[in-house]
Automatic annotation (TrEMBL):
Keyword Membrane: yes
Record-linked Pfam families: DUF1980 (PF09323), DUF1980_C (PF21537)
Protein name (record): Putative repeat protein (TIGR03943 family)
Membrane-traversing stretches: 39-59, 79-97, 103-122
Keyword annotations: Membrane, Transmembrane, Transmembrane helix
NCBIfam families tied to this protein: TIGR03943 family putative permease subunit (TIGR03943)
Keyword Membrane among record annotations: yes
Organism: Pelolinea submarina
Domain DUF1980 positions: 10-102, 202-302
Amino acid sequence: MDKTAKRQYLQFLITLGLAVYLADKWASGKLSYYINARFFPLTLFAVGALCLMAAAGWLHLAAKAAEKQVEHAPDKNILIFQAFGLTVTPVLLTLFLPKTILILGVYVLTALLGWLLLLRYFHNLPGRPAAEAPPRSALLILSLPLIIGLAAPEQPLSSASLDTRGISLNAPVSISQQSTDSLAVRQDDRTILDWVKLFNYESDPSAYIGEDVNVIGFVYHDPRLPQGEFMVSRFIITCCVADAFAVGMTVDWPQDVNFEDNTWINVQGTLDVMQIGSQTVPMVHAASIQPVSAPEQPYLYP
C-alpha cells in the first residue's frame, strides 16, 4: 500500500473514531460532563457529519483500489490490510463499547462500507482519480481530540477545581434573565442554585428565614468560614465545562463530624442568612446530613 493510501486510510479511521467516541459519550450519559444538555443535538449532528465524512473517505479508498484492480493484478497487501480492519473493528466495538442502538448503528455503517469496498474489488468498478496524501500534521491535529478524550479521565469537576475557581456568591445574577422562576419552585424542591438565585433577586431574602431546606451537593471548606461551617456546593454550566463555576450554601454543622472536601451529602435543615464580605448569602442550620452517591447529573444548569 502506497503512502497516499495509508494516510487516507488513517484519516478514515480517525474520523470514524471521533464519531464513535462522541456517540459513546452521548449514549452513556457522560456527554453532560463536558457540555450543557441543550447542545446535545449539535453533538448528534456532528456524529452524523463525521460518519458521512468517514463514508466518503472509505468510498474514495474503494474507488482507488478498484481503479488499481483494473490496471494491475489485485494488491494482496491492500486486501490483507482491509480484511484485518474489517475483522478487528467489530471485535473492538463489541469488547470496549456499550451495546447501544447508536453504537450498533455506527458498526453496521462500518460493516456495510467494508462489504462495499470488497464488492468494488471483485467487480472491478471504476473509481475517481487518486487524491494527494493528507499531510501528517493534519492527521495529528485531527487525532488530537480523540487522543486527549481517550487519555483524560471521565469524571466531573470536583472541589479540587475550587482552589483556582473559588465559590461564586453573585454570578447567577448575570447568567439568566429567568432566575425569578426559582421563586415558583416549592422550597423542598429547590436546588442550591435556586436558593442562591432567590437571594440574588429578592430585595428582602430574610423573609425566607426558617423555611425548610433539602439540597444535595459536595462539601467544600471555604477558608472564609469559621470552624463548624462549610459550603455545600454544585458546579453550574452555561455552555461547557470550560466556563463552569460553583455556587454554594453555607452549612452550620457544629456536631463533631468532619466531612471531607468533595464528599457528596444531602443536607436538610432550616434557612438562615449570613454575611460573607458585603454579600448576603443563604445558610442552612443543618438538622441532618447524610453522605450520598454523586448524582448521575452532577452539574446544574441556569
